[in-house]
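We emphasize that the prediction below concerns an isolated chain of 288 residues; any contacts that depend on oligomerization or on bound cofactors are therefore not represented. The input was used exactly as deposited, without trimming of termini.
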Amino acid sequence: MARTPAGSSGSERPEGYDDGYWELGRRLFDRWGQDGVRMPAGRMIGLEQNLPNGKCDGNSLGPLSLSVLDGAAWEYPLAGPDRREELRLHHLRHAQGFLYFLANDASVPGHIRAEMRRWGLAADEFADTGHLPHQLYVREARRMVGEYVLTEHDLLQSRRHPDAVALGSYHIDVREVQRAWRWVYEHPRPMGMVFTEGYLSVPVRPYPIPYRALLPRSQDCDNLLVPVCVSASHVAFSSVRMEVQYQMLGHVAGLAAALSVRRGIGVHRVPVTELQQRLHDAGQVLAL
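Result of the prediction step, given as a token string:
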């Protein structure tokens, strides 16, 4: 998004916009009003100029956000092309509707609506797809169960691995998983409340990623290296999945594949000490 003249952001009602879809947002703002909560507009979607030319990259923040928490995402990894396209459009319409809702709905506090109208979709970004990204950001889908499954214990304890080929360092970052209804036991009687479940953010020290996490189980396959859909638990993958780690693991996979081909051996038999030395010589940090 980018800074725009007043009134130019979110002014056009998206096709198929459903007022009822955003009722939870209206109730949330009503409750905040009763409790005297004044949430800055930037905390709703990340309106902070953090890119050149007055731009920002919006993000999913807070209890009401760009994230679609209706369970639809669970289908995506195993869905066919047609269903995936339906899910993509569902997320797209949610994003468009969210921007319109924040800028126009009377239930939204005036200071949030006013700030939203100062921003708009950047005219020089994604010009061929309506100025919104052309694909979903799939944080997590299917992953391999390999020779070693990296878990949160490896991250939190910085477990040592003799076959370490990279260091991860991004915090454990699990976004909200689902929105549920539950009783909250408040005095003088329980009250029904919407509860957003699954968010987790935990700092970690730099931790080693073992070569075995890039390998399938030897009984399954002997010619595959997996630097992205790496063998990791849901929680551990929320840290590993960052681009910097993908680049390091892609470097590992390329060197290991070259060694495998040159020696005429399977990827499980690649000499790890030689692989580590080549990584070290190329500037890869394997330990602190």
